[in-house]
Design goal:
261 residues; binds ligand BJW; Rossmann fold; 9 strands; elongated; binds zinc ion; SIR2/SIRT2 'Small Domain'; 6-stranded parallel beta sheet; 2 domains; alpha/beta
Length: 261
């Protein structure tokens, strides 16, 4: 490679990864795009011409639980058929290789978890933080009941076929965080602690428009971390980035991470 070529930022980031004490990896839907999971915004982001902002809300579920469950039932089934891609595997490898790496994901698809299992580790992993819950958890709209990792198919064909809470009989809902709802307190706290401690922050496949998740890399930068963005498109975080990789995450991340000692 000649000086100034594409290999220079790659080499510089590899060196930064090797030298950093504390690495925070923040991921969004784009990290799963190459597994065949649709992203929320941009091409293919609409479901039956509805935006995520109109479906993923407590109000939408109250008004029309069948339609919202239809969306989730389809996604649960489709994602059940998807497998982790090279980006999930590279991230899992780095997480398992080093005790100072924390992964904070907005994704509810469970593909980071499955990459960790494929790498031979058990779940839950204490340094994989889910900010927006899981598609494969059910919880009650009215009592504390919840059931993790249920892969059972949901039948949204009528209101009576929708899942119910076995404890109190109220409606069960997906165990995800909708607009207007608070993020899980412990997850947000742990993400903020990891952001403050990190010397390097890798942001992978997020449009960085949904808060408070989008503020986590900002917290890291304010606390002194350098930022690398992996995204084919610019985001509001781009101006904060020291390194910008416009390739698909599954192509570039393994190339960078697997070469690092
Ligand atoms: C690739 C690629 C490849 C493609 N490789 N890259 C200011 C401050 C704080 C809050 C707010 C605020 N303004 C407004 C709010 C409220 C709101 C919000 O942020 N709204 C914005 C839209 C304006 N936030 C909330 O309501 C949150 N809660 C909250 O604030 O609570 C406060 C509260 C406190 C106390 C009491 C009560 C309330 C909750 C947000 C929940 C978001 N939920 C969703 C749905 C989850 C369930 C489900 O999946 O069904 O989470 S919305 C959806 O967006 C999902 C995602 O996690 C999230 C982020 O999307 P993401 O991952 O970035 O995906 P995309 O599609 O946007 O981007 C993909 C990217 O990948 C693109 O950039 C591509 O270019 C790229 N890409 N291929 C790499 N191969
Ligand atoms: Zn209940």
């Amino acid at each position: 490679m000649t000086p100034g070529s594409v290999d220079d930022p790659v080499r510089a980031l590899r060196e930064a990864i090797a030298a950093a004490r504390g690495i925070l990896i923040v991921t969004g839907a784009g990290v799963s795009a190459e597994s065949g999971v649709p992203t929320f915004r941009g091409e293919g982001g609409l479901w039956k011409r509805r935006r995520v902002e109109d479906l993923a809300t407590p109000g939408a579920f109250r008004r029309d639980p069948r339609t919202v469950w239809e969306w989730y039932a389809e996604r649960r089934e489709a994602i059940g058929r998807c497998t982790p891609n090279a980006a999930h595997r590279a991230i899992a490898a780095l997480l398992l290789r080093r005790s100072d790496v924390t992964v904070v994901t907005q994704n509810v698809d469970g593909l980071h978890d499955r990459a960790i299992i494929e790498a031979g580790e058990e779940l839950p992993h204490p340094r994989l933080i889910h900010l927006h819950g899981s598609l494969f958890t059910l919880r009650c709209v009215s009592c504390p009941w919840q059931e993790p990792h249920s892969a059972a198919p949901i039948d949204p064909s009528s209101e009576v076929s929708l899942p119910r809470c076995p404890a109190c009989g109220a409606m069960a809902r997906p165990g995800v965080v909708w607009f207007g709802e608070p993020l899980p307190e412990a997850a947000l706290r742990e993400a903020s602690i990891a952001a403050t401690a990190a010397e390097l922050c890798l942001v992978v496949g997020t449009s960085a428009v949904v808060y408070p998740a989008a503020s986590i890399p900002q917290v890291a930068v304010e606390a002194g971390a350098r930022l690398a963005e992996f995204n084919p498109s610019p985001t509001p975080l781009t101006p904060l980035a020291t390194w910008i990789f416009r390739q698909a995450a599954g192509k570039i991340l393994p190339y960078i991470i697997h070469e690092v000692e």
